[in-house]
Amino acid sequence: MGSIRVLVEGDLRQAVGFGQEELAAIEAVYPLISEGVGSMPPIMRVDVPESNGEIDIKTAYLPGYSGIAVKVSAGFFDNPSKGLPSLGGLMMVFDAETGVPRSALFDNGYLTDLRTGLAGAVAARYLARADSTSAALLGAGAQARYQLEALTLVRSIERAKVWARQPHRAVEFATEMTERLGFAVEPASSIEDAVDGAQILVTTTPSTEPLVDTSMLHAGLHVTAVGSDAETKQEISPGVVSAADRFVCDSIAQSSRLGELRTALASGFDIGSVAELGQVIAGTVPGRTSDTEVTICDLTGTGAQDTAIASLAVERSARAGVGTAIET
Question: Against a cut of 0.85, is the pTM above it?
Fold first, then answer.
């Protein structure tokens, strides 16, 4: 008989967080994606329009990893009005050699939030100006919090602004993150106000129409777009994608189908060369080459990230004897 180790959110928060090892684990998967190593099928999505929700299924097998994570992620964007988080879900980890289920991770979306925040930090490490000290966030939910905190791993952020459709949420975000991170975070009165003077802009909304247009771009700006992971979503206008000096994405196939590249291509814009983040990390294509370039990284989220962060969490939990083993 075998057993499955069940880990709940509290266990997982003890196991993994904003550390350099976690950052390295996420960074390491991008060259594998670009090289086509392993197996990462297209994302499966179930739309629930009546509830403004969706359920996504992501997975990937990566050589050298002992487990294969299968993630079921729910995004129901009216939940905050019901006192519930907008994102949730769970992961299952299967033994990469035998296919036997080894762990069930009831993370309530924590691992997804964490790995996405760390992915934003990886993008900034390779594409934002090295001397960046100011950031702007569009959206004031959990992912905006993770993105801002993760940025501090790779850049010396000294100030930030946040914009949200509901101004009181931006105020709450600013108060909380100022106390947590120890530098000034201010609510912005408009998107233009947030972006003005920022060296790094991170968009974290489920918007279905563009929030950022070309009038907001300025020399040296880096944009990490996180929100568009479905055919119905868009945070950046096609003109912005075309105007950028460098457009990078986690997966060209996914960005063309679900991300910001999709609408730019459909609109007939000349995008120029498009690169994957893994190619930039591996050094086969350049990242930022000057302090005046405008760069964009579109993160649609990959199953490879899920396998990487879940594997690390399972390994650490096993060493610490954390979780509950259930005989099967």
Answer: yes
